[in-house]
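User: Quick one: structure for sequence A, then sequence B.

Assistant: Sequence A:
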Amino acid sequence: MTADSKPPRPHVANHPLVEHLRTALALAAAGVPVLPLRAGKVPFGNCSACHGNVCGGRPNMKTPGRCHCPRTCHAWAAAATDHAVLTSPEWAGAWRGASALAYHPGGADLTVVDLDNADAIAWARAALPATRTVPTTRGEHWIYRGAMQSANAVRPGVDIKSRMAYARWIAPGTGTMTDLPPAVQALAVKEGSTVRSASHAVTVAAPVGGGECRHRTPAYLDRGIAMAEQRITEARSAVHTTVYRTFLAVLSAHGRCGCLTDTHISRLFSAAQAKGESPRHCTDAWANARTALGV
């Protein structure tokens, strides 16, 4: 969604399923990752193959990385822009049961300031620069260009939805979208901490080598890391799973001979964080991949 573009909202009478899907496809074509919501404005629950997030999102799972389920079972991380994914048979049941549509703001390089009541709106008008606004049931969404970490209850009646979060799609909104201001970024910073960029220090150590090195030249390893970065960067849906499987592939190829360095891992973490993953998620996915491979 560009600063002044407004994705069309096709109207299809008497068929909410078709209207939700057509709106989703229009948003996806504009680069906005979308997902269906069930009753209660919540994502569809995990399917049996993904129950307990066994795909590798948590370090205490016994079978990380075993999931190959393409259904909409990972909330914001399932949001997609790929037409083939959104219209696939695996998603058909979710669209049939959808009561609303949501999108992943961070995936579209956007931040939504969710103002839940009149007092919150009055505060925003006094404290924040004007931008595109969307009326909601109880308040307004203020949409800025630029992504940041999400945070709930940063002020009374104010939530921030960007990376690793979803927001309900209501309408394109009115007004010209402006850049994410420091005043909004500061809301997500806890007292005593500082704002950090997307590139964080690596919190894991490179594997200790003991096996025979298969890399004939340093370029072989560099090429593999570059391909892994590209795979993460180009992920259009299921970001958690893509990051985990990429880490798994890198460790499978390079994790036993000791050639991986902290610099290589930092490159992978930076690519994942640029897609909205937190340092904690990166660390957990790396640990899960090492456990699965025994390295």
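Sequence B:
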Amino acid sequence: MSIVESPDPGARPNRQGRWRSGQESKRRILAAARANFAANGYQRATVRSIAADAEVDPAMIHYFFGRKDQLFAAAMSMTDSPREPIGALLDQGLDGLGPRLVRRFLEVWDANGHVEPLLIMARSANDSESSASMLREFIDQEFTARLVAALDAPDAALRGDLVSAQLLGLAVARYAMRQEPLASADHDTLVAWLGAIVQGLLTGPSPGGGG
């Protein structure tokens, strides 16, 4: 007779321990997420549908990755979602937001040590409708919409788009094209030049004199 007790058939397995070692499940989730975002776009893709495609419980996705925006960031091999950084910057108010935004943008991109898939998507957006859609929806929902909501101006939506275009242009020139001397410029120099431009887009008067 074995001295090892048989497992209780009614006992629940240690779910947390199983998930911590679930590297295969994580790979399936990421693969399903990439396919689902590409097929349905960022807004229509849901954690539940991704979980179904990966054949896992939706709670497993929340355990491994958190919210949908964080799952998207992981699926695209990004450092993180912009939700927390932009929220923290907006909490400090609109005064000086332009320089803070440029500096944070540079810090995040320089810390990556490689060109993010988000940038690759930006470069290929003209050739791939799915890439363009994912990129546009993600930036709109997790970055631009938060800026627009904080601006008290009738042209807030246009201002938000202009800020996004300014930063995306900086990313392409500095990190994809490696255009010099922009690619080698230090953060203080770029913040001094671009911070005022972004601040003007955020809170400056509109070209027509209103706003």
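Confidence is low (pLDDT under 50) at residues 1-13. The two ends are 85 Å apart (CA to CA).

User: Thanks, that's what I needed.
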